[in-house]
């Protein structure tokens, strides 16, 4: 009952004209960003953080805006999957399999609306899951000391590559690079400058927002320049929507699928190292094994559209659980949302629930509001969103670049930060070519300082004894999970990745999609 | 091959990082761990993972042809120029050039580029500055 009271308080916070307006704006922007190939949820949220920040919005309104964008992008990713067979972002990859064949059969409108409903069901249940699971996790997290936190951070890095990671050395490299970048600046505990090379601008450290926008948004611009991919993938005549509402029988047939995959997706989101891409992958595979008696999956079966969409949206909600309760994100986009919290001076983790309940519950209420808004927007307005696919990248990408510059310049007004951002853009492009994941770099720059101070605190408390790191059963447990999580992909990673690739060998290219 | 070079650069980076970590001046008032230990751990992880990348390389990615490379460098230079000139020229003028250059390189014709440049610049100015009140770079002309 306590939980429901808190939730009611949350609604009281979230329901103001300003917040509802922001949620609406976020949903619209998010859906558009999710729909555009090359601008996924991480990118979309990354570009908007500095803006929300410089506009001087308070903590709760900024969070409402940005999480609406996050949920919206998860909805929007399916639009280009279904209509063009190009996933708007990686989690929407599996939606291509049955969505595009449905569109070819002239059922694009029904595919879009059934996937919209599935997305709604997935995130709706995941938000309830978040409400009940997060406080339980907080109770466990309150037992954590600095040594356990250090182990938990290590666990987050070890599992971030996910089960589908193919090259763990590259994930480890990326994590170390991010942590190394976080070390730049004045050491908070002793006050000595580190790795600043006498450059005054570096004394404050590198702003993680600069790193995020550079790595995600600008590197995308470079990718488009490299391929000189300036024209829209959709042409006006190709997009035929057809009937917009699915018949009741179709919804009825998809309901058990949606419920099962919501649960599965939520679990995938909560567990470290899984994330939305895997959530949609296992949801699709499970449903295919379970209900595909006639072999219609892959040829335009509506259940094959509903399964991955419910799965990936539920995973998006599930991924918020460890992010809010522990302060340790499990996926790329939640890492970006962590950046939102940190730049608003809110430290997520168990104390968040007791110290800033208004932020937590306001956010959760906002998720419900955003979810209903998205459903309401998506069914009737899907025609407008499909128009967005016709905006050619040659117009879009300069706008993305310029908005990135505006946002970063707005924070500090310093040319130096802009130059660092361009550096990150180029670096991000090279690393993406080399298949190095960018998310661990972001997570490293975000968590580096917290990780170090927990390490130092733990050892100082125990008078310089490094053995304290593996002194408690809890810490040993976390370390074991970290090690297993790091090694497991070496064994099963290739199989899963092959499954995901084979699943969509018809889709054109995925070079432009970031990991959820 | 790309991965071997990348791994080698990574190892060098790790060594440089470790050396500059060792050069950190310790304060006389320090905790039990000090400011050097964690950077050294990071350097070790960086070195080991780079060595693995170099020893077990993935297949080389498809690198762009030379002129595409030049294209990317040129875009980076244009962005650097944009960053440097932003406070000098002011937001609107700098952004017209910046956006026009990028859209031109992505395949717009010369006239289109100019129109897109002006449109992007004025659009952002109106939405972010006039409507939302964000501070943008002011040039000598006040905008």
UniProtKB/TrEMBL annotation, chain A:
Record-annotated DUF112 domain positions: 21-443
InterPro entries: DUF112_TM (IPR002823)
Protein name: Tripartite tricarboxylate transporter TctA family protein
Natural source organism: Aquimixticola soesokkakensis
UniProt keyword list: Membrane, Transmembrane, Transmembrane helix
PANTHER family per the UniProt record, alphabetical: TRICARBOXYLIC TRANSPORT PROTEIN (PTHR35342:SF5)
Cleaved signal peptide residues: none
Annotated TM spans: 20-39, 45-71, 111-134, 140-160, 172-188, 208-225, 263-284, 323-347, 359-379, 399-422, 434-452, 472-492
Transmembrane helix in keyword set: yes
Keyword Transmembrane among record annotations: yes
Automatic annotation (TrEMBL), chain B:
Database matches in Pfam families: TctB
UniProt cross-references to InterPro entries, sorted A to Z: DUF1468
Keywords noted in UniProt: Membrane, Transmembrane, Transmembrane helix
Annotated DUF1468 domain residues: 5-136
Transmembrane segments: 39-57, 69-102, 114-137
Presence of the UniProt keyword Membrane in the record: yes
Keyword field contains Ribosomal protein: no
Protein name: Tripartite tricarboxylate transporter TctB family protein
Originating species: Aquimixticola soesokkakensis
